[in-house]
Design goal:
Blueprint: H1 3-55, H2 64-79, H3 85-97, H4 101-110, H5 117-131, H6 136-145, H7 149-162, H8 166-174, H9 177-183, H10 187-195, H11 205-209, H12 212-218, H13 228-243, E1 248-259, E2 262-272, E3 277-284, H14 290-306, E4 316-323, E5 326-332, H15 339-348, H16 352-375
Parallel strand pairs: 3-4
Antiparallel strand pairs: 1-2, 2-3, 4-5
Helix pairs in contact: 1-3, 1-5, 2-3, 3-6, 6-8, 9-10, 13-16
Amino acid sequence: MSKKIKIGLKENYNLLIGDISSLLESARRTSARAVNTILTAAYWEIGRRIIEYEQSGEERAEYGHQLLKNLSYDLTKNFGRGFSADNLESMRLFYLTYSLIEISETVSRKFDLEKSETSSRKLNDEFFSERFPLPWSHYVMLVRRIKEDDIRKFYESEALRSGWSVRQLDRQISSQFYERTLLSKNKTAMIKKGEKPLPEDIVTPEEEIKDPFILEFLGLKDEYSENDLEEALISHLENFLLELGSDFAFIGRQKRLRIGNEWYRIDLLFFHRKLKCLVIIDLKVGKFTHADAGQMHLYLNYAKENWTNKDENPPVGLILCAEKDNAVAKYALEGLPNKVLAAEYKLVLPNVRLLTREIEQTRKIIESRKVSRGKR
């Protein structure tokens, strides 16, 4: 076979790979959009039914907050994640914000989630996909963070026109893009500049599919790891803590939680039988910063309010930083109610030096294995 033919075949193959890759990326994005349309329609309907139950479509009744708590408990029991009181409040606000008369009078009477798949799809295609073209995560941000109708319409319009990802929308709202545009002498140039995404704004097709809202709606697991090293460290530390004795009871890993409009994940979650408390473990493949401590306290406050039972002690946090040249292990104990309990935690929990040494040794072993595999 001549050299020219080989080059031609390689170029054709590269074109084939590129063509198939584009097709798959497009299919994934289309799938995410289709799920988002159904999700948004369902959540708008849920919001409508909550409002009508409260006060025949009027503003929230005095018992509204308790209603959301009751709904959250029963829906979570029947359908799993995605129905926290906070999420239900987003659905409620979504309906209040976008309760258009033409939709309310036509679609709401006809749209029933128990109807046939064909009927539901037809209604979604004809009404909801046109009225709500943005993903659900965008609408949550719009109704939770912006109270003024004009400002919300501006961001909604720009997000749709420029194809903003939810990250770009978040950044533009946080940087007061509307106010800066309003004050700008050259508004056209400002708008044009706002169209361009930054590298951190880009959302891949895989990330679109793994949107926590979509995963919750479909009842799918959302476990993932940032990289191979972190995954290997977490796996090793999980086994290491379990081997220390029967006091550590494993609950979960890569556990997601939502605080406000932000999603977080906890690397490891244990329950310590002797201390009667949750142990939240967060691993950082890098240097320890004050932001890590602040984030851990955020986790602890959330866990204390949402995951801790009445007869249990407050949760404790453990931050593990596996920086290449300096491992760090720190306990977050400031939230404990008294010094006696804090002292007991320090006596019972694994020694910080032991944990630090274990992180250093584990990282060296894992990295040496990766280097060995790369040389083969």
